[in-house]
Amino acid sequence: MSLIGRHGVLLVSRLERTQGVIATILKQDEQLILSRVVADGSAALACVFRDRPDLILIDMDLPDLMGLSALQLIMDHSPIPVIILSTLTSEGSAQTIQAMRFGAVDYFHKEMLVSGLEGEGVVTYFLERCKLAVQNGVKGVYPATTHPDGYMDSLQPGAPLINGALLQRRMDIEMHLRHAITKKEFNLVYQPVVDISTSCVVGMECLLRWDNVDVGFVPPSEFISIAEESGLIHEIGEWVLREACRQNRKWQLAGLPPMFVAVNLSRKQFNDCRLSGIIAAILQETGLEPNYLEIEITESLSVDARLAADTLGKLKELGLRIAMDDFGTGYSSLGYLRDLPVDKIKIDQSFIKGLQHGQVNAIIVSTMLAMANQLNLSVVAEGVETEEELQVLREYGCRFVQGYYFSKPVEVRHIEEMLYQLA
Ligand code: C2E
Ligand code: CA
Ligand code: CA
């Protein structure tokens, strides 16, 4: 039933509440049309053959595990992308895990959708995920390998060894992440960037920390990707920007030597057309001068260099600086330097680890420094841990460094003390 860009959606549910919520949400989109609502698997299958829907939503709140059997029936006869609507209970989670094993491409908690009707974010995200499911078909909506331990891999439909515990953890993280801002569970720590010619701290990179009573301490490498996938990154990223600017202004007002604060920007934030407006408002609200804010981007931020150049142009107009993070690890580093208005490169830690003269890494680092010098870019070496690494960097003329050698990321309450120690 794909009629000129429209996608038919079949809902399998017996609950009026679910039917109402889904109907209301789908009405907000022009492309997704709720074509039919049925109560069980065999009616769903008949519909699949008759109406050819592009997407099926199955409510797991059907009696006797009928949701799972409806899913199996569809997968066995006519595979179509299926999204599971589950509840945030242990039974609901177990069923979701089973359903992903059986080939569902995505899941949503109904509690989230109901609460989402009050705000915009969740509904937009749900609609986006539905379209992504239609677009990607049964191959699924999760990127193949987004996590170092490969647990995204296991979310791929049909993967026989899906790791239920990991999926459960992902769901728990997503659920608690939703309330992390209101519950004040986030915290920023700051890692100094040191000028080795003067031993002065010239800036601070802020790094996000999240501690939750139920899921415990979760490292950013784990929760940032979940925040991105669930659309929560916009809210979280804005909180980080505001908090970092506010804190930097506070240090200035307390009489500390002025330094820049560097904020990591994630891909979704970067591709949000409201970004420069949000940053301008935050600068105004906190009273921080734009030259004390630096934005760190990575090479994977945007596939479209022209779009990225546009966005960065707007940020530069505001007066802030742009740093290319993890430099050297992407595949198009040099093209990015050519096409984008970057002020600084941060040499990735992998080039610094165990740095010694004569090594391939040493040749790469000295070449990066020479190139940056010619291009008038400033350079920070990241992940400096030892005196030896620092010595080699010094000899190559690298002026700015960051790493455990000087300091681990520290909490605000220890910053002043740390600044006096380093001085
Ligand atoms: P990154 O931007 O490359 O941040 C540097 C990471 O290296 C930090 O890990 C830092 O603690 C660690 N590090 C710094 N010096 C050393 C060192 O000498 N040795 C070693 N082994 N590690 C060092 P962290 O805090 O776990 O952050 C990991 C990544 O998470 C960051 O990588 C960044 O990409 C992301 N991240 C952190 N906070 C935010 C945030 O607020 N927003 C976004 N979008 N991403 C964030
Ligand atoms: Ca960074
Ligand atoms: Ca980095």
TrEMBL record:
EC number, UniProt record: 3.5.1.44
Enzyme class: hydrolase
Keywords: Hydrolase, Phosphoprotein
Chain positions with 4-aspartylphosphate modification: 59
SMART domains named among the record's database cross-references: EAL, REC
Domain (Response regulatory) ranges: 8-125
One MF annotation (Gene Ontology) recorded for this entry: protein-glutamine glutaminase activity
InterPro entries (UniProt xref): CheY-like_superfamily, Cyclic-di-GMP_PDE-like, EAL_dom, EAL_sf, Sig_transdc_resp-reg_receiver
UniProt-listed SUPFAM superfamilies: CheY-like, EAL domain-like
Domain EAL: 170-423
Record keyword Transcription regulation present: no
Protein name, entry field: Protein-glutamate methylesterase/protein-glutamine glutaminase
